[in-house]
Design goal:
This protein is of the alpha/beta class and 182 residues long. The chain has 5 helices and 8 strands, in the order E-H-E-H-H-E-E-H-E-E-E-H-E.
Length: 182
């Protein structure tokens, strides 16, 4: 199966920078902001986003606003794929109550992972606002969920596959699409 690159490292970096500016503009700054990555690739993207926000707003401590949110036990497909590794959920010290939480994931597809994340969040507290930031929105939603911040809208066929590779996990930054009727 042949893959074609749709984003390179520079384009991913620019997308994160744009999302960082959008998050700060929507939130009117970084006050009460929490950035939570959804494992696995949402976590390094959340760290990059928090770091970029800290570069734009020097008073922000990137490590203090970023965390991760494991959604495994809230998924509705555990009966189909029962073997999943559970990643730790790590919240910033101030928790999520009355905060603006930005969930970060690599690809928005059916919306089921985001629904799981919303369920997981409700077990942990009551954020004031929850927003969604994704690197790629490929469409084909099964639930009424949309991203507030999108790095790239990527129209795809349902049988195509979008693969996000990040330096922290894969040794390189790239987004590729494969499969379908290429």
């Amino acid at each position: 199966m042949r893959a074609r690159q749709v984003l390179d490292a520079a384009e991913i970096r620019r997308a994160i920078a744009r999302i960082a500016h959008e998050v700060l503009e929507h939130n009117k700054g970084a006050e009460d902001l929490v950035i939570l990555g959804i494992p696995s690739r949402g976590v390094p993207l959340a760290r990059r986003l928090a770091q970029r926000i800290a570069e734009i707003e020097p008073s922000v401590d990137a490590d203090a606003i970023v965390g991760s949110l494991d959604v495994t036990m809230h998924r509705d497909d555990l009966h189909r794929q029962p073997i999943r590794s559970i990643s730790p959920t790590e919240l910033p010290q101030g928790g999520i109550d009355d905060k603006t939480v930005v969930l970060v994931d690599d690809v928005l597809f059916s919306g089921r992972t985001v629904r799981s994340a919303l369920d997981a969040l409700s077990d942990l507290g009551r954020p004031r606002v929850v927003r969604l930031a994704v690197l790629v929105d490929r469409g084909h939603r099964e639930l009424p969920i949309r991203a507030d911040h999108v790095g790239k809208n990527l129209p795809t066929a349902a049988d195509e596959r979008v693969q996000v590779r990040l330096a922290e996990l894969d040794g390189e930054d790239t987004v590729e699409i494969s499969g379908g009727d290429q």
